[in-house]
Amino acid sequence: MTYELSRDLLRASTLAREVVKGKQRLELAATSADLGLGEWNSGSGRIWATAKALQMFGLGEVKEPKAQQWLDQIHPEDRLRVKDGLERAIKDKQDYVAEFRVCRDDRSTHWIAARGRAEQSAAGGQVVLRGVVRDVTQNRTAQAEVQELRQELGHSGRVSLLGQLASSLAHELSQPLGAILRNSEAAELMLRAPAIDRDELREVVADIQRDDRRAGLVIERIRALLKGRQLELLPLALDVVVQDVLT
Asked: Is residue 172 classed exposed, middle or buried when 0-12, 13-18 and 19+ CB atoms within 10 A define those classes?
């Protein structure tokens, strides 16, 4: 019996050392990949985490931090969302994926990407959530810079387009407005004459009205161009366009 107990004890000791070595190897591999590992037993509340994970959350100096201490490190705007997601993953025994901000004691804010899976423990009755975390602050910063650059390019493009539209608008309006001015000057001269040719004056007024409608149509077309609506294709009579140009 003593021999059997000694052999079982030796076997258990060897197995424990292998487990410790396995965890050390796993932690080394995860640290090399810039990942933090963690395991949360929802029943006992016990949390195991690698040094890298503790460092990401700013808990490197805390020994065996509780679940609430982990949550307290999360940004207030993200805390409730993360907590609800974790509780849902544990309740439904499903995967958990999230990105959130962590506020460290040095007042720096870091973005953390987390991915985990909730499973029933071997002992049964308890759900264990195992997962990895990674600091994605640099990626987020790069994305923000790219977004800002896109906005600046978009703004520059709009300014350039507005400049072209303003030039086009001035060009399109200069002709009808100039024609209105010339016709109004002609009408003024005709009104000063001793005998007024009513038919000719009527033609001048008609020209003024036509050019006024033309100027309004130019403005209406520019406004339609600026509106973000679906392009509408219509038949176009080329002879009318040519006649307008000749006029």
From this structure: middle
Both tokens of 228, joined, read 């973000």
- Give residue 28's pLDDT: 54
pTM above 0.85, yes or no: no
Residue 44 has pLDDT above 80, yes or no: no
Residue 109 C-alpha from the chain's centroid? 19
φ/ψ of 111, rounded to 5, equals: -90, 130
Q: CA 101 to CA 75: how far, in whole Å? A: 5
Please enumerate, as own/partner, the contacts of 210-217 that have beta carbons within 8 Å and a separation of 24 or more: 211/176, 211/177, 211/179, 211/180, 211/183, 212/176, 212/180, 214/176, 215/173, 215/176, 215/177, 215/180
Per-residue pLDDT tens over the stretch 67-78: 888 888 999 999
